[in-house]
Amino acid sequence: MKKEIVLKAKDNTNIAINYYKQSFDEIVIIAPGWCMTKDSNAFCQISEMFSKFADVITLDFRGHGKSAGMYTFTAVELLDMDCVIRFARKNKYKKIHLAGFSLGGAMALIYASKSRFVDKIIVVSAPSDFNKIENKMWKKEAWGETFKKFEFDRFMSIRPYPIILKKIKPIEIIEKIKVPTLFIAGEKDPTVLPWHTEELYNCAKCPKKYKLYKNGCHAEDLFLHFMEDFSDLCFNWIKN
Fold first, then answer.
1. Pairing assessment for the beta strands 2-8 and 14-20 based on DSSP bridges
2. Looking at residues 29-41, what average pLDDT do you find?
3. Distance in angstroms (rounded) separating the CA atoms of residues 128 and 126
4. Which one of 27, 119, 138, 147 is most buried, counting C-beta atoms within 10 A?
């Protein structure tokens, strides 16, 4: 059963979540990337996929969807992750897992580097450094997939803050992560090239696994294009 709830971050920003509660004792918190929301078609499908074996929370980061505030491209969104984790802990889950996509993957890594309340992590197309994201939007692999996923309401909900705020670089904190982490990338990702994921994987000191999808694109597109394999990969990582 899906329920929409509004949480409050420590800076009083309202953070909207979809809570899929099915009485599992584990929960997966799904963190979408820039310009994606909890109610986008892709993330509704991803949430349903994870809800087959765990309770699920999918959030709208600030400046997205039904959350308040403006999006700071990982500078402040740690507060959003924190209020969701606090909600999960209040509901007494035995294990809390993170599944982050693109900049949501960066946030999952940054949060896990500072918290002892995360059990496993999945990061998909996460950048090692925001300032080094290539984002070749003119390539057909980028605009073609963006066009396929276009949702007017989602696009109109995005409220970005200027990208001037200082950001934590995932590559600088990756060695601090101790919990098992699955790194997933697409070979032909035009937004966050796969070397980002490879660099994070190589520098990680935790139990880890790396999966590169041949001819794969970016973040949620890997789920949409390789649904069965992606689902099995995530299930086996979380449950084994």
1. antiparallel
2. 97
3. 7
4. 27
